[in-house]
């Protein structure tokens, strides 16, 4: 085909822990692909959809407003300003 050339591939390094690497390799083998193909699929979907193709969410416990509240509560407890409460049992 005139005007079409083979794509040029570049190499990219990704750092992952050894256990995750082994699990990804095993998963990819189970579905009949290799990790390089999996990463290329991820990039293709990301570019096609113009977004990360899955939700990325922060654990709400670590939200700044909650962490500030926890720091204030700890400071009150360390200063001896505690409020006693009765235990309420839930069925």
Unreliable stretches covering 5 or more consecutive residues: none
Query: Using DSSP, what is the number of strands?
Result: 0
Q: What is the H/E order?
A: HHH
Distance between the termini: 73 Å
Structural class designation: mainly alpha
Q: What is the number of helices? A: 3
How many strands, what sense, and barrel or not for the largest sheet? none
Tell me which oligomeric state these chains represent: single chain
Q: Please state the overall shape, judged from the principal axes of the Cα atoms.
A: elongated
Q: From the alpha-carbon coordinates, what is the Rg to the nearest angstrom?
A: 25 Å
**Mean of all residue-level pLDDT scores:** 89
The share of residues in extended strands comes to: under 5%
Helix content: 40-55%
Structural description of this entry:
- It is built from three helices and no strands.
- The longest helix is centred in the middle third of the chain and has 15 residues.
- The mean pLDDT is 89.
Short overview:
With 91 residues, the protein is mainly α. It is built from three helices and no strands.
Features:
single chain; 91 residues; mainly alpha; 3 helices; 48% helix
Strands, helices and their partners?
Layout: H1 18-31, H2 35-49, H3 64-78
């Amino acid at each position: 085909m005139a005007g079409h050339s083979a794509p040029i591939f570049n190499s990219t390094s990704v750092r992952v822990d050894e256990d995750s690497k082994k699990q990804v390799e095993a998963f990819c083998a189970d579905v009949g692909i290799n990790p390089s193909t999996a990463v290329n699929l991820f990039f293709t979907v990301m570019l096609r959809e113009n977004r990360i193709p899955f939700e990325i969410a922060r654990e709400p416990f670590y939200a700044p407003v909650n962490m500030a509240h926890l720091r204030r509560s700890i400071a009150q407890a360390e200063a001896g300003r505690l409020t006693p409460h009765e235990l309420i049992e839930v069925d």
